[in-house]
Amino acid sequence: MFTSALAQPVATIQSDTVKAGPYDMGKMWTFDTPPKEYFQKTYQFNPDDKWFDETRLAALRFADYCSASFVSANGLVMTNHHCARESGTGVVRKGEDFNANGFFAKTLAEERKVPGLFVDQLVQIVDITKRVQDAIDRAGSGAETAQLQEREFETIKTEYANKPGFKGLELQVITFYNGGRYALYGFKRYNDVRLVFIPELQLGFFGGDPDNFTYPRYALDCSFFRVYDQGKPLRTTHFFKFNLNGVRDGEPIFVVGNPGSTERLKTVAELEFDRDHRLPYITTLLQNRSKALQAYNVTAKNDSVLNEIFSFENSLKAIGGQLAGLRDPYLMARKAAFEKQFKTAAQKKNIPTQTWDELASTTAELRTLFNDNTYLAPNPLVQGELLAFAQNLIQYGELAQSQPQAAQQARSLMVPPALKSRQLEEAFLAAHLAEAQTVLGASDPYVQAALNGRSPKEAAAYLIANTRLTNPQFVNELVDRAGGISSSTDPLLALAKIVTGRFVTANGRVRPLQQRQAVLRSQLGRYLYDVYGTAVPPDATFSLRINDGVVKGYAYNGTQAPIITTFAGLYDRNYSFGDKGPWQLPARWKNPPAALLRQPMNFITTNDIIGGNSGSPMINKNREAVGLVFDGNMESLPGSFIFVPDANRSVSVHAGGMVAAMRYIYKADRLVNELTTGR
Q1: Mind listing the GO molecular function terms for this protein (predicted)?
Q2: How far apart are CA 88 and CA 275, in angstroms?
Q3: What is the structure's pLDDT at 138?
Q4: Residue partners of 550: CB distance under 8 A and separation at least 6
Q5: I need a surface site. Which of 216, 298, 300, 327 has the fewest CB within 10 A?
Q6: Residues 597, 661: contact at Cβ < 8 Å?
Q7: 3-state secondary structure at position 323
Q8: Which residues face 59 on adjacent strands?
Q9: Residue ranges of domains in the chain, CATH in brackets
Q10: How many other β-carbons are positioned within 10 Å of the β-carbon of residue 147?
C-alpha cells in the first residue's frame, strides 16, 4: 500500500504510541510577544526590539485579503499577482488586456490609482486581555457573552480613538487563543495606492490549477504597487531591501504576514465532524458550482467569472488537502495525543476538563442537524438566487403577520435578485436538487416535491421557466397584499414553503449550540494560554505574525525536490506540454536570453503559512527581502488543523527571479534600479 510522506497504512497505526510534535500548533508568532528566546535557542540569532519593530513597520496588510510589504524608500509595495488580479485589472483602459499583456508604468505619471484599494501598517499594539475577559465573565448565556464582548470592543475602540498616538488610526480588536488573550491594534491606512507592475496571467499563474499547491514550481506570482501621500510617493525608512544573492540550504528564513485562519485548537471531536460532514459538503458544493461556471464561461468569456472559477478551484484543492489530512489516521492520532497531553497538563493546574466533554456532546448534536441546516439554507451559492429569494419571501411573509413593524423595516430588501444568467441559475438549482436527492434521499418530502418525477436538471429548468419571481411588479404585489406570499401558487414559492420551516427549526437549534461552542472554545483558549503561555502560538486570525523556517528540500515522487527552481525549468515545462494549456508562454517570453535561464525563479522553505499569507515577504536575518510567498505544496494543506514540517513547504518567488524577469523580459529598468538600490 502506498502512503504519503506523513501517512502510514491504517493497520500500522498504534494510536497510543503516536506522540504530538513540538510544533503541531504551528509557528505563527505574534509581534505582541516576539519569540526572542526561541529564535536565539533555535538559530543562535538575537534580534532586538528594534529588529522586530522595523520588521513590523515594513510589513503591510493588503486590503482585507492578502499581505504585502514596503520594498523601497519611495513607498513601493510588493505583493502577489493573485492578490492584485482583481484590484490591478480594475484600472484597465479601453483596448488593454492585463491578463494577456501585463502592465508596467514606465514613469511615475503612468502609475495608476486603484479605486478602493488600501494597505494597512500596524503601528500600535495594546494588551486589553483583562478588560475584555472581565466583561465576558459577567455574561451568562452564549448569546450574552458575544453581545458583552462586542460591546466592550466598541467601548475600548471609542475610548482609544482620541488618545495621543491613536488619532486617525483604524482600530481593530484582535482575539488570540479563542479568547485567551486580546489586543487592540492601531493601523495607519494608506488609501492612495497605485499599480506599478503586474505580469501576464500566464506568468503569474503559470501551470494554472494543475500546478497549484505543487512543487517544483515555476510562477512569477508577483506584482508591485506604490503608496502615495498627498499626491507624492510616500517617503519611508521602513522597508525591506531586496537581496538578489539567493538563499542557502539550511538558512533561517522569516515570513512576515497576515495568515487568515487556522483551527489547530479544535478538539478531535470537532475535527471528526469536519471530516465527516462539513468538508465533504463544501467539496461537493465547490465542485458542482465550478463546473457550472466553467460551462457558462465557455461562451461568456468574462474575467470576473474566470476569477470566480480560479477562486473555487483554489479552494477546492485546498479543502481537498485538508480533508485528506483529516482522513489520515496518523495525523488524527497526533491531534489526539496533543489533546491528551493538554488535558493532563490542565489537570495538574486544577483546570476542569469537562470543557472537552461538552464540546464533544454539542458536536454530536450538531451532526444530527447538519443536513437540514446546510442543504436547506436560503443561500444563493447553495440553491441559486431565486430559490434562496423565495425562502426569504416566505420568512418575510411570516414576519409581516407576527411583527408588522419589523417587516416594514425589511420591506426594501424584498427585491428580485439580478441574475447573472438564466443558464447559471438553472445549473446552480439543478446542482442543489441533485445534492439534496443524494444526501436527504429520494423519499424525502422536500426532494419529492422539488423533483415531482423529473431529474434534477429537468426540475430546475421547469421551476425557473415557470416562476415569476424575476418580475419586480409581481413580487411587489405579493409583498404588499396581505397574505399574498402565503397564497401564491408560484412553483418556487410553493417549494420554499415546504423547505423553510425545516430550515428554521434546524437553525433555531443550531445557533445556541454554536454560541455555546464559542464560549467553550474561549475557555479552551484560556486554558491553553494558562498551561503553555506564548510557547504555543495562537491560531491565525488575519493578524500580523512572524514565522520561522529554513531553506530545505524534501523527498517527493521517489526523488528529491531541489530548494530552488530556475527559469530553465519554466521553459522545460512549457516545451514538455507543447506550449499548450496553462503552460503556454506569451510571445515576448518565447526567445529568452541565455542569461535568464540560469536565474533562480522559485524556492522552498519549512515556514508555517496559510491563506492570507499570500503576498508575505520572505526575509533573512538582515531584514532583507529574499522572496515572496505565494503558495504551499500539497503536503502543507493539512496546516489548517496541524503543522507538520516534515514535508510541509512554503513556495516563494525568488527576489533575484523577479528582478531577472524585469531586466531581461519586461525591460523595466526603472523598477529594477529602485529594487536594487532601495531608492
Answers
A1: dipeptidyl-peptidase activity; serine-type aminopeptidase activity
A2: 37
A3: 82
A4: 250, 251, 252, 253, 605, 606
A5: 298
A6: no
A7: helix
A8: 69
A9: 31-118+191-264+539-677 (2.40.10.120), 129-190 (no CATH), 268-509 (no CATH)
A10: 12
